[in-house]
Design goal:
The chain is of the alpha+beta class. Helices cover 19% and strands 40% of the residues. The protein contains four helices and twelve strands; from the N terminus they run αββββαβββαβββββα. The strands form three sheets. Strands 1, 2, 3, 4, 5, 6 and 7 form a seven-stranded mixed beta sheet that branches. A three-stranded antiparallel beta sheet has the order 8-11-12. Strands 9-10 form a two-stranded antiparallel sheet. Pfam families: NUDIX.
């Protein structure tokens, strides 16, 4: 991918998007960082510090949207500064990708941005949150499709607490709902995408954002 492709890619993005019911989920935002190195663009990934939530996983910089953030783009830029120590003035946003919803109740907005740096050594990452960083050429994802697996998703109208008591979440009888909803229902499969690059596994929501980016790139 070169600068000509970047300019064409901008046409594939829209900064206007939202999702009905967003307020019911944990909302977060990420930056998909791009750096021009060795004659082409690379994605920059981080390995999360093992002592924090989802420790040891590969992801892009980002985090929960705070009430003080004006919008999710501001969240992505703030989190990138906190994790990579790269100020927003050094990042050129080229567009917003489709938001990704996780069945575990997380909604993630994603923005692609070019970092004005020369190499990974310019990123002084926060070691309390990031174990290490690495780059992967965008061309790798253009040439290699992800592995695809599935998990099964069901809706549970009740749960069992730590004392073994059943907690009724959906009052089926009270609202005279069909009896079928008094037991777990649904048999949906949720696709899990995975890329393997050297010794790193890039998967889950991160992989979904990459797929979205590559699909837009191929249309450019």
């Amino acid at each position: 991918m070169d600068n000509k492709k970047i300019n064409e890619l901008k046409k594939q993005f829209s900064m206007i998007a939202d999702i009905n019911g967003r307020e019911d989920f944990l909302n977060s935002s990420i930056l998909i960082p791009l750096v021009f190195m060795e004659g082409e663009y690379h994605f920059i990934f981080q390995k999360r510090n093992k002592n924090i939530r989802q420790g040891g996983e590969v992801c892009f910089p980002g985090g929960r949207i705070d009430k003080s953030d004006k919008n999710s783009l501001e969240t992505a830029l703030r989190e990138t500064y906190e994790e990579f120590n790269i100020r927003k003035e050094k990042i050129q946003i080229i567009g917003r990708l489709n938001s990704v919803f996780s069945p575990v109740g997380v909604m993630v907005d994603g923005y692609a941005g070019i970092m004005d740096i020369r190499s990974l050594e310019d990123i002084k990452f926060n070691m309390s949150e990031v174990e290490y960083i690495f780059s992967v050429p965008v061309s790798f994802f253009e040439k290699n499709s992800p592995a695809k697996h599935y998990v099964q998703i069901k809706a549970h109208p009740s749960v069992i607490d730590k004392n073994g008591n059943e907690i009724n979440l959906l009052p089926v009888d009270q609202f005279n709902l069909p009896k079928v909803y008094s037991k777990p229902w649904g048999n949906s499969k949720y696709a899990i995408y995975l890329y393997k690059y050297n010794n790193e596994v890039i998967w889950g929501l991160t992989a979904r954002f990459i797929i979205d980016f590559i699909n837009r790139l191929k249309k450019s």
